[in-house]
């Protein structure tokens, strides 16, 4: 017979015990005004009775309010060298975490065939873009080869208000700018390949770049590594192990949301 006692100094409760013999009898010993009652907690009715008598003994109801406050929605800024697998990781992450919103960037460039407004980008005119800049409606924006690209604040605010975590995919310069703006209020994740060799093979495998473009991307990747210390986390996206990278990023988000002192982004 194994007897485990607990909560002994709780008002009238004199002890819990678990009897582990063939009959599998579980119970709690409770004293009502000096009379010891043994309640059978093997049945639902017995458990309800024990629960109620504990409340009676304490003279108050047990609260069903959450003990820990709801975690703050988090902003995850995702960056890394071209071809490392940012899109692939984010795409899979969105499939496995339903409470994530991937921010769709606004751009003043014309829509290309096959692109969908609101999915690939929000396509807006240059005038509209300039008016939004004037009204301070972008978290960050840049002029890239004559076209504006920017992160609309409203989209982030709206989704954070609904409790969503926010994912932003930016290049290294974008990450530096966002770090200056958001400081420690967002989580900065840098994705790398396990080696330069693996990165180059991945880029070749994607078949989207010319030889010249490949050389440029590899050179930039080396430069970009120098910015690593501006980030909070580095995740190695190993060849053939996308799932593991997605798991690690998910764990980072979970750990951040379990922190006692959490990041709180105000956009
Ligand atoms: N862990 C992995 N193992 C093997 N292939 C991968 C892995 N992760 C991504 N890939 C593949 O590598 C290629 C590049 O990935 P992806 O387009 O997601 O990179 P990216 O970082 O978003 O690139 P860019 O910055 O140029 O847009 C894709 O063909 C993708 O399917």
UniProtKB/TrEMBL annotation:
One of its GO terms (molecular function) is GMP kinase activity. Its EC number is 2.7.4.8. Residues 73-254 form the Guanylate kinase-like domain. The keyword Nucleotidyltransferase does not apply. It comes from the Eukaryota. SMART domains: GuKc. GO terms for cellular component: cytosol. Keywords: ATP-binding, Kinase, Nucleotide-binding, Transferase. It is an enzyme of class 2 (transferase). Belongs to the guanylate kinase family. PANTHER family: GUANYLATE KINASE, GUANYLATE KINASE-RELATED. This is guanylate kinase. It comes from Erythranthe guttata.
């Amino acid at each position: 017979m194994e007897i485990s006692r607990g909560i002994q100094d709780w008002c009238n409760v004199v002890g819990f015990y678990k009897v582990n013999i063939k009959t599998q009898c579980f119970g709690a010993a409770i004293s009502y005004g000096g009379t010891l009652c043994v309640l059978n907690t093997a049945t639902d009715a017995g458990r309800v009775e024990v629960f109620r008598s504990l409340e009676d003994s304490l003279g108050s109801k047990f609260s069903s309010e959450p003990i820990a406050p709801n975690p703050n929605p988090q902003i995850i800024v995702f960056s890394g060298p071209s071809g490392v697998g940012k899109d692939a990781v984010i795409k899979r992450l969105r499939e496995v975490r339903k409470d994530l919103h991937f921010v769709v960037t606004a751009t003043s460039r014309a829509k290309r065939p096959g692109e969908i407004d609101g999915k690939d980008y929000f396509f807006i005119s240059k005038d509209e873009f300039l008016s939004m800049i004037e009204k301070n409606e972008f978290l960050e924006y840049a002029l890239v080869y004559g076209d504006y690209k920017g992160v609309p604040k409203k989209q982030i605010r709206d989704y954070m208000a609904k409790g969503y975590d926010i994912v932003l995919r930016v290049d290294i310069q974008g990450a530096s700018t966002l770090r200056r703006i958001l400081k420690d209020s967002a989580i900065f994740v840098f994705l790398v390949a396990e080696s330069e060799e693996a990165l180059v093979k991945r880029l070749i495998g994607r078949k989207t770049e010319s030889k010249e473009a490949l050389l440029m991307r590899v050179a930039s990747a080396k430069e970009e590594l120098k910015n690593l210390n501006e980030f909070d986390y580095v995740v190695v996206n190993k060849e053939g192990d996308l799932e593991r990278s997605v798991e690690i990023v998910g764990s980072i988000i979970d750990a951040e949301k379990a922190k006692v002192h959490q990041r709180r982004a105000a956009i």
